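Before the break, one more example. Copy the sequence into your notebook; we will annotate it together after we see the structure.
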Amino acid sequence: MGALLSLPNIGKIVEGQLTDVGIETVEQLKAVGAKEAWSRIKAIDDSACINRLYALEGAIQGIRWHALSEEKKAELKEFYSQSKSRRG
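Here is what the structure looks like once it is written out:
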């Protein structure tokens, strides 16, 4: 396993999921973004929740997800809600 573990919020399980969906480097994660990365993970793991989406965004920003701005959290929450309604 590799460099993704060096990011905040990324443990072995999430790193493994990212690798499973074709995201193997920090650069690839930043290029696809949190929303796309989360969508790919959700396709293979239905338990992927909003906290995982926040975690991915925090990893990209280099911060713990708890420190995301309220604006960013609201944007991600809207995306998450729309994603759930499309699937349901």
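The helical segments are 12-20, 26-44, 50-61, 70-87. The first helix runs from residue 12 to 20. Try to locate both features in your own notes.
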